[in-house]
Amino acid sequence: MELRSRIPTGPIEQKWDKHRFEMKLVNPANKRKFSVIVVGTGLAGGSAAATLSELGYHVLCFSFHDSPRRAHSIAAQGGINAAKNYQNDGDSIYRLFYDTVKGGDFRAREANVYRLAQISVNIIDQCVAQGVPFAREYGGLLSNRSFGGAQVSRTFYARGQTGQQLLLGAYQALEKEIARGGVQMFTHTEMLDLVLVDGRARGIITRNLRTGAIEAYAADAVVLATGGYGNVFYLSTNAKNCNATAIWRAHKRGAAFANPCFTQIHPTCIPVSGDYQSKLTLMSESLRNDGRVWVPKKAGDKRPPREIPEAERDYYLERKYPSFGNLSPRDIASRAAKEVCDEGRGVGETGRGVYLDFEDAIKRLGEQKIRERYGNLFEMYEQITDENPYQVPMRIYPAVHYTMGGLWVDYNLMTTIPGLHVLGEANFSDHGANRLGASALMQGLADGYFIIPYTIGDYLANTKLEKITTDRPEFAEAKASVAALTTRLLGIKGKRTVDAFHRELGQIMWEDCGMARSAEGLRRALSRIPEVREEFWRNVNVPGSDVELNQALEKAGRVADYLEFAELMCTDALHREESCGGHLRVEHQTPDGETQRDDSRFAYAAAWEFCGVGNAPVLHKEPLTFEYVPLSQRSYK
Amino acid sequence: MRLTLKVWRQKGPDAPGRLVEYEAPDVSPDMSFLEMLDVVNERLMERGEDPIEFAHDCREGICGTCSLMIDGVAHGPVRGAATCQVHMRSFADGASITIEPWRARPFPIIKDLVVDRAALDRIIQAGGYISAPTGGSPDGNAILIAKRYADDAMDAAACIGCGACVAACPNASASLFTAAKVSHLGLLPQGQPERYRRVVRMVEQMDLEGFGGCTLYGECQEACPKLISIDTIARMNRDYFKAAVIAGDRATVPEAAG
Q: Who among B46, B111, B137 is closest to A129 (CB)?
């Protein structure tokens, strides 16, 4: 396996323009002769499918949801970054690039990040043209707010529902193309395998979730936009059905998986309340614009928050990071919360929580203004906790939210399997070891609207692709292996439910591969995961049959994949003997508890090659060079 | 809390269905409604029975997947909330709760509590978009939009496509769903060129799918988890009427109408 990043030469400002010119084009009349499979209909997949169809390609688009509008991008609350500098506060493409590379703790590719910052301005224009109702000022101009990890206001938003509105824009464009006949849409259809013909990605195997039918589809190229793997932790802010099955099975067919240990723990989520908890709910980071984070100074102080006098409160983010304060990047804010809770200063019944207090903001701006800014978030909080955050401070705690790792892709977003492209959260490319707020939406749409439509043309124009159908033996082989897996899962008839295994795995991952990782803990996890996996395949109980809607069966396949993937994640975390971004190895900290990178040994993306379940994967390194943003210790003080 | 559930069970689209009673003995008031069903399902599976299939995903009220009729009320007793945002503290200890799927002819039942809502996607396909192919868009600030219109458009755009409006309507009308999209796009300057063509096509698709007509019961806005107002329906009707009058032939409204 060879990692060729295909980063264009030349100055960073000119790389993308130069590359766009150098890429081969597909003649408009020839485009309709090419078919492209797009799996996933979130921001990345939806925008890619719509745009490829607009260009004239024949698109086959797949979603396991009942409608393409339901992908989890819809739940993104806060906003989308763009280097428009509408606020005249000194923003620029270069600054967004700089902030993102630094925020990612120098573990992303400079060239990709620069391109992302360049494209950010086009995204806003595109979305406005589609009718995305961004927040506006009285004069009719677009409104902005600030977000963690930045000192400028470059975040565009649509109340607390930015992801929803951007996704509906992409969804509507997709539906327009479906109606026009350019996109053939398959809903309630889950991809369960990737098919390679002569070493190239040429199709997928799917299961119709209503009838159970296993089907094969062939195309000239395959695009995966299937999101992240945060649900390996069981509890996360991801939607319940988010899963890593598509990318994991592509990995098993030969696509390298990069930096799986880079996961983001978001600092502002509603704390866990009981064993039955099925998922965690995020409170948008935008709340940190006006909310102040604090805990009591004294450990074990159980007084109600309003009875704790100012002098006995520790506004620890403001104290430790005076220049960024409550807007410190996510990894830093999360770890700081864990630290104060570990010291016994956590609040709420479980002691795993910190206050996010709006008292000062309400005094300064009035309740009405706060209601305008965050009304729906406050309501959501009250619905879940039965507490009114206008009167008592919110309680928050970090939770798994986003995964920076993913399938390794080159500058063209192509994996180590020719013809297989990966977009959005499912790839590893732009956020390094930590993603800044409001950058996920930006990346998903950049990949889908503005990058893949160019780069896939270059692949198709440069590649001699034989016309094939699903009659090829490779499809029959993959179909048989998918069917065999289903039969095996249904045949075990053990004693424990799928969720019981998922919860057990999640507990292991949260304890030993969560916010703070140690060699000892990771080794413990690496010995326990195969045990759980072994028990799963012996003792799982999957009810029902394979010829009907059977959500337990769907979930069983996904958990089976997590039980393999988790091992790779811990292996990666163990091998990376440094701390960077969201990856904190307790052995590698600065004297004041910040991440201690080791650039001489680890300034690379770790791309792992699959060598069979239970076998050690092979590590391939893509060295990262920093020519524009000088390597330095991140400081938000 | 101790609850008795009466749940609609139906093997498949063509199988007969019936209400089946289940006991839920130790429910915590802090559980969400779906977490309560998770616990019931875990028990069923431990006993070797088939779990109750219900649609769900984000569990924070935004994806629009969950869709339960709880004691005859779409999304249950909490106003402005989807099923996943309803917590058990909204029910009395010892209560008996009836759980059914959305019921409307254009929403065939797939299994148990899961229905097929593809008809809503087809209404969007008929015209619920602005034709702005990727690339070539003017600067985002090139066209000013008064805050009032941007806010009204956002109110309508908040629709999560769950179909509660249809389930709540005695006529099984999809008017609120359709009107929300017609309003969102029709209120924005970018949506003007296709405004009348859009409304005609979407309304006709709604009829084709077999949704009923709107007779202004107003049940839809009560059931809507995003509290979208039936003012949007008035706006849709006005635009539809204008399109019909201006164009004469409703099916071929010229782009420039209005």
A: B137
Evaluate whether A244 touches A562 at the Cβ level (below 8 Å).
yes
CA-CA-CA-CA torsion for A7, A93, A285, B181, nearest 10 degrees?
-90
Q: Give me the total of CB pairs closer than 8 Å, taking one residue from chain A and one from chain B.
A: 213
User: Is residue B257's pLDDT more than 50?
Assistant: no
State the pLDDT confidence band at B247, using cuts at 50, 70 and 90: low
Check: CB of residue A559 under 8 Å from CB of residue A518.
Answer: no
Pairwise CA distance, residues A437 & A439, whole Å: 5
H helix or E strand, kind and range, residue A165: helix A162-180
> For A142-151, A507-516, B213-222, which range has the lowest pLDDT when averaged over its residues?
A142-151
Q: Closest to A383 (Cβ–Cβ): which among B34, B81, B126?
A: B81
| Alpha-carbon distance values, A566 to A553, A560, B51 (Å) | 20, 10, 27
Considering only CB atoms, which chain A residues are within 8 Å of B191?
Answer: 131
- pTM here is 0.96
Query: How far, in Å, CA of A280 to CA of B15, rounded?
Result: 36
Tokens of B101: 């799927």
Would you give the distance in Å from CA A495 to the centre of its chain?
33
All structural domains of chain B: 3-111 (3.10.20.30), 118-252 (1.10.1060.10)
Question: Which chain A residues touch B55 with a CB distance below 8 Å?
Answer: 66
A330 is a catalytic site residue: yes
The span from the CA of B123 to the CA of A607, in Å, is 44
- Rounded CA-CA distance A427/B197 in Å is 40
Q: How far apart are CA A215 and CA A190, in angstroms?
A: 10
pLDDT number for residue A312: 97
Q: Does B150 contact A135 at a Cβ distance shorter than 8 Å?
A: yes
Query: In angstroms, how far apart are the furthest CA atoms of chain B?
Result: 64
Span A484-491, average pLDDT: 97
Pick the residue from chain B with its C-alpha nearest to A278: B35
Residue of B nearest to A138 (CA): B147
Residue B57: which of A70, A137, A449 has the nearest Cβ?
A70
pLDDT tens for A28-45 read 999 999 999 999 999 999
Q: Which of A330, A373, A517, A576 is catalytic?
A: A330
Measure Cα distances from A127 to A52, A108, A463 in Å.
Answer: 17, 26, 33
Give the SS3 label for residue B251: helix
Q: What is the nearest CA distance from B253 to chain A, expressed in angstroms?
A: 18
Give the β-pairing of A221-224 and A214-218: unpaired
In chain A, CATH 1.20.58.100 sits at 473-623
- The answer, yes or no, to whether residue A278 has pLDDT greater than 60, is yes
Please tell me the distance in Å from A592's CA to the nearest CA on chain B: 37
Residue with tokens 């701006």: A365
Q: Domain A473-623, what fold?
A: Methane Monooxygenase Hydroxylase; Chain G, domain 1 (1.20.58)
DSSP string, A94-113: HHHHHHHHHHTTS-S-HHHH
Query: What 3-state class would DSSP assign to A594?
Result: coil
Q: Is A264 on the interface with B (CB under 8 A)?
A: no
Q: Count Cβ atoms below 10 Å from residue A407 Cβ, excluding itself.
A: 29
Whether A383 and B132 lie within 8 Å, measured CB to CB: no
Coil, helix or strand at residue A80? strand
A265-399 placed in CATH 3.90.700.10 = yes
Q: Retrieve residue A453's tokens.
A: 């439509």
A384 at B interface, C-beta within 8 A: yes
Residues 204-223 of A with CB under 8 A from B: 210
